[in-house]
Backbone:
């Protein structure tokens, strides 16, 4: 008697149970009927809706306490990080071109206030280090000097008064910063040298402006000429003397910019001083020497360890500078035999 | 082909999608509710037929779902495999319960009668008793099967799973599942009197796995 192979029977039964079209043989019919009975019996078991609600309550309670905290936390953290990155990127996209564009801005131009703001930010960011602050302020002073030169070159004379005043203020601020850094023992010799160079160059530029304004070689309107001359006089008086008349900071010298700020610090890291015999006498000055006694406010000086001592000319009576720092035309001091003037920084 | 179609049909039948699974992994209440609604009845039937105790089956159903939801982030299979994964947890919970509980067998007839009378007073108690008696006869016949045969039939009939899905849950081959299914239904039909008494009770084929011979097969040997 022929009997189908077992595997075929299994497959046919499985197909019948799945509802697939297979011939229902006599052999498989009772099995399918038994399966239907079992299905009907199982289908009579229904889950009570109240029980289902309780189960769901348990499941959802677990979801609230177990899941949402750990899953939403990283999402929020990531969200914050993405926002920070986006803001930083946007700021970089805006500030970087603006910074580059404002670097060459001159007084009176639209980007110039932005340039000043960036400088202030940079200074504020390095104020934790006196040496770095001195370096940054010296760099700013150099920028102010470049601006004055650019204004002259571009014949933007109406901006000269403000530019000269800004130069003067920047140099004074740099001098104070260098003096304070030197007092703290910071290595600012290089910075002091740069500042001295800025002062020398500034004195030269200011003197050229003064001569040009006086001779009328540059066409200045009356008001502008007066303003330029006033600014030149202010600058030359204390901070930016003309070449050959570099001044030693005097006691009680008022700082034109900062109220209560210390007087002009004697940053003068000129290398080997020349013998006094070779020093040229000071040229006639256009402005009278300051007369404030040294006792009111001792003139600051850099510590001898980091800064070359600032000397007063031997001819100075009563220990008071004569209003014109004795220096050679090459910018070197000619006062090495004079005991250094010990000045404390504010 | 048709078997895989059956898998897709099962998924579509319960109305779950891959998005539901993703949302359930994120513990979204709506997705969890959909999964529960889709599988809780089948799990309850599986437990009910296994332990013959409504309250215990309800507790096991709830425990299985809580365990499943806690372990859902670890489930990396497709949504089609979610049912099989749930029944694997159900089997584990059932074995765990049986291991912990040493209890006497509950008489299902008494429970069913009490339960039916309490649930619907309008139904004739005599009809209820007959129905439950018939039901108990089927379940009694089911208990006569070997554990493997009973488990295969329950996963197939209660869980609505295909033979390959049952094979995946039980860790057996599809052929072995089909063979267990065939023998289990044959035994069930014989106990229920669905086969003619003069039909020889023979096994037309040898057991595919001699190491898993049922007690009945061993007796036959």
Residues:
């Amino acid at each position: 008697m022929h009997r189908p192979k077992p595997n075929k029977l299994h497959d046919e039964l499985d197909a019948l149970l799945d509802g697939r079209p297979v011939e229902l043989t006599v052999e498989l019919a009772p099995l399918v009927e038994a399966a239907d009975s079992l299905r009907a019996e199982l289908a009579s078991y229904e889950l009570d809706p109240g029980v289902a609600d309780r189960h769901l309550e348990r499941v959802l309670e677990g979801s609230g306490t177990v899941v949402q905290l750990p899953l939403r936390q990283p999402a929020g953290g990531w969200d914050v990080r993405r926002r920070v990155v986006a803001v930083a990127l946007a700021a970089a996209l805006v500030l970087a071109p603006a910074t580059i564009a404002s670097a060459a801005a001159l007084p009176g131009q639209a980007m110039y206030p932005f340039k000043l703001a960036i400088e202030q930010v940079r200074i504020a960011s390095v104020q934790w280090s006196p040496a770095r602050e001195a370096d940054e302020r010296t760099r700013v002073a150099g920028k102010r000097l470049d601006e004055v030169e650019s204004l002259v070159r571009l014949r933007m004379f109406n901006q000269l008064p403000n530019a000269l005043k800004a130069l003067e203020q920047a140099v004074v601020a740099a001098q104070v910063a260098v003096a304070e850094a030197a007092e703290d023992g910071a290595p600012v010799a290089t910075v002091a040298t740069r500042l001295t160079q800025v002062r020398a160059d500034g004195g030269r530029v200011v003197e050229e402006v003064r001569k040009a304004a006086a001779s009328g070689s540059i066409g200045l309107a009356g008001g502008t000429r007066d303003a330029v001359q006033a600014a030149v006089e202010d600058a030359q008086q204390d901070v930016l003397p003309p070449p050959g008349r570099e001044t030693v900071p005097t006691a009680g010298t008022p700082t034109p910019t900062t109220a209560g700020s210390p007087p002009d610090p004697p940053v003068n890291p000129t290398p080997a001083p020349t013998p006094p015999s070779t020093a040229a006498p000071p040229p006639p000055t256009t402005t009278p020497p300051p007369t404030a006694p040294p006792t009111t406010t001792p003139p600051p000086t850099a510590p001898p360890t980091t800064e070359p001592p600032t000397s007063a000319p031997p001819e100075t009576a009563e220990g008071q500078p004569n209003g014109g720092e004795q220096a050679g035309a090459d910018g070197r001091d000619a006062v090495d035999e004079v005991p250094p003037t010990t000045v404390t920084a504010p | 082909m048709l078997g895989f179609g059956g898998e897709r049909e099962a998924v579509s039948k319960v109305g779950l999608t891959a998005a539901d699974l993703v949302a359930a992994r994120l513990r979204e209440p709506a997705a969890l509710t959909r999964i529960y609604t889709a599988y809780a009845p089948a799990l309850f039937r599986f437990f009910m037929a296994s332990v013959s105790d409504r309250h215990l089956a309800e507790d096991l159903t709830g425990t299985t779902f809580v365990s499943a939801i806690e372990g859902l982030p670890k489930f990396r299979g497709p949504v089609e495999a979610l049912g099989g994964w749930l029944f694997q947890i159900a089997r584990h919970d059932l074995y765990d319960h049986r291991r912990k509980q040493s209890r006497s067998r509950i008489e299902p007839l008494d429970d069913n009668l009490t339960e039916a009378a309490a649930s619907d007073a309008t139904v004739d108690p005599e009809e209820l008793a007959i129905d439950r008696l018939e039901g108990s006869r089927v379940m009694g016949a089911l208990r006569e099967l070997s554990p493997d045969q009973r488990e295969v039939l329950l996963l197939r009939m209660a869980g609505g799973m295909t033979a390959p899905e049952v094979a995946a849950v039980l860790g057996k081959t599809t052929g072995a599942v089909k063979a267990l299914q065939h023998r289990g239904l044959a035994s069930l039909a014989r106990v229920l009197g669905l086969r003619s008494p003069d039909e020889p009770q023979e096994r037309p084929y040898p057991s595919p796995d001699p190491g898993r011979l049922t007690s009945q097969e061993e007796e036959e040997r």
User: Anything to note?
Assistant: Residues 64-75, 248-346 of chain A have pLDDT under 50 and may be disordered.
